Amino acid sequence: MAIPFFGKKPPSGPPPLGAGVSDRADELPPRTELSSLNFAGADAGHALAHVARLVEVQESATGVGAACEEAAVLYANGDIAETERVLEAVLDDPATIAGDGLWLMLLDLYRLTGQKQRFDARVLDYATRFERSPPPWADLSPQAERRVAHAPTVNLSGRLSAQAATQFQQIGIIGRKSGTIRIDFGRVRGADEAGCALMRQTLAELAAARVKVALLNGDALADMLSTQVAPGRAEARDVWLLLLELLQHCNDEARFEELAIDYAVTFEESPPSWEAREASRPVAQAAEPLVEVEGDVFRFDADLGGASNDALRRLAAFASERSEVVVDCARLRRIDFVCAGMLFNILSTLRAQGRLIALQNVNAMVGALLRVMGVDQVAHVTLRD
User: Does domain 143-267 have CATH number 3.30.750.24?
Assistant: First the structure.
């Protein structure tokens, strides 16, 4: 059974919070759309489950578009080796002019599967071809999460100061020995500038040694440090800088950008640039994908699969009570074909009700599938760095 992915469908109105899988629309492969499956029916989940194994991607007018969609569907079905083969074949073909989108898909595939050597071999070509910095390396594989889950944990307590120098040295020793470490700030009750300087130095040394670091309860320490800085008061520079570092580990970009402006004005120098770090939380051990809710932000985790996915039902219930919802997909690795169809159903219904939905920090492999399925026509979808 062949389902045409590349036919035309009547154009719809603009999505609620913008258009496209990325604000950089010119960098994506040409749009070719899934057109013949109807996700509006009440039993769409059953229909998708019936056809998911029978999907055959047909050739389109553009080989790049076909490769993009074929790779997206293969990855959704869990066929990593074939996904990699398809992407590498089209990028290594000298007759093919591939844009930024396919390269980002392959680089993200390497990150999602923990293939650092292959990633490193490609990033120079990417930088040369597009004259821009490539995405930074981050091990987003399940194996990396399991390593962090079993990483040694150091619990800091009391006040971070110069008197804690021995503790910081031990953190460095433990981290370099194990290759990964978790630092818990839950019992920290304060910090002075000397303690903040030592903490920054320790994190920098761990990063230089390529030690994987997870900061637990970093948001609580950030809240404490924020009371010690004031715009226009050029003092406690290391407190400012540690606070900026913690906000990156907490993935609080909005608060980071606001503080960075205050830092630049106060110290008359450029602040550190934003770089998302590993999430400051313990790794979930549950079999089902973890779902977290924080204010108006709904967070997906791990893999989403199946027509009866509890995470999607919770999203529908969560969004039904709000006019605008942000779905953070930074920790979402993969969504299967059936689940993507159910997501389209839910977002279509929410859009029809006038609700605005934004899917943020989507990896390039998932982003390609959402584009194939038309999800970017009913929600604003932006890719992660």
Answer: yes
